[in-house]
Write a structure and sequence with these properties.
Oligomer: single chain
Structural class: alpha/beta
Largest sheet: 8 strands, parallel, barrel
Bound molecules: 3-methyl-2-oxobutanoic acid
Distance between the termini: 66 Å
Length: 275
């Protein structure tokens, strides 16, 4: 099966074809998304919350993410796997950025990396690309700047903020990113940025006019109840379904309904030979 490349992602924009992308964190979520031809899987640092149960995305480490990237890569036949650079894996220096992006590709099997922030990180973006690794940008609401922005708040509501986000998106493109995530910004700003850029925009809480959309796997399937972002649509309630099934299993064990005859074997008793 042909692997999706960054050229295929660009083609969605060129053909004006809206496309869905999603996060994935393990072999099974990757297999499920790949089975329905979702072309790009992001191993997001949102894993900090939905996989590791951390309070926000700040504490997750490179090592904690690399394990997940490798599992997603193994579960993927065609989707492009993008690894999310965690907090402090690229901010401090260009060397850190290149080395850590390289680990995602070499140890994890990722085909690209994503990093949060626009203009302040163009040197990192440029250097990672120079090392042969495609980069996806991420502007607007930046979850790794949780403390600076006093929590998760929509960005770009004032003229000044909107201009900064617009400039960030432009500079991410100028420095070679193959796509850019627009998170938590007013829809009209996302429309303007999408029209101005040649590379695809991928929106989350950024309205309907982005070239593609991205959502967190656990959010749309109802697997994570701690936070319900406004931008999420629940397509299922798998968390409740799983709990119901587990309760059924528990009950059946307690009343000795499981295991039943078909779930075990009995060794055949050999007749004892006598003379
Ligand atoms: O970490 C993540 O899952 C993300 C997406 C939601 C864009 O950055």
């Amino acid at each position: 099966m042909k692997k999706i490349t960054i050229r295929d992602i660009q083609k969605f924009k060129d053909d004006e074809t809206p496309f869905a992308t999603i996060t994935a964190y393990d072999y099974i979520s990757a297999r499920n998304a790949d089975a329905v031809d979702i072309p790009l899987l992001l191993v997001g640092d949102s894993a900090a919350m939905v996989v590791y149960g951390m309070e926000n995305t700040i504490p997750i480490s490179m090592d904690e993410l690399i394990f997940l990237v490798r599992a997603v890569y193994r579960g993927t036949e065609q989707a492009l796997v993008v690894a999310d650079m965690p907090f402090m894996s690229y901010q401090a220096s260009v060397e850190d950025a290149v080395r850590n992006a390289g680990r995602f590709v070499k140890e994890g099997g990722a085909g690209a990396v994503k990093l949060e922030g626009g203009s302040p990180y163009v040197s990192q973006i440029r250097a990672i690309i120079d090392a042969g690794i495609p980069v996806m940008g991420h502007v607007g609401l930046l979850p790794q700047s949780f403390h600076l922005s006093s929590g998760y708040r929509i960005q770009g509501k004032t003229k000044l903020e909107a201009e900064k986000i617009y400039e960030d998106a432009i500079s991410v493109q100028k420095n070679g990113a193959f796509a850019v995530v627009l998170e938590g910004i007013p829809a009209d700003l996302a429309t303007k940025i999408t029209a101005a850029l040649d590379i695809p925009t991928i929106g989350i809480g950024a309205g309907p006019d982005c070239d593609g959309q991205i959502q967190v796997y656990h959010d749309i399937l109802g697997l994570y109840g701690d936070l319900m972002p406004k931008h999420t649509k629940r397509y299922g309630n798998l968390g409740t379904d799983i709990q119901n099934k587990l309760a059924e299993y528990k009950k059946e064990v307690e009343v000795k309904k499981f295991p039943s005859q078909k779930h075990f074997i009995t060794s055949k008793v050999q007749p004892i030979k006598t003379y």
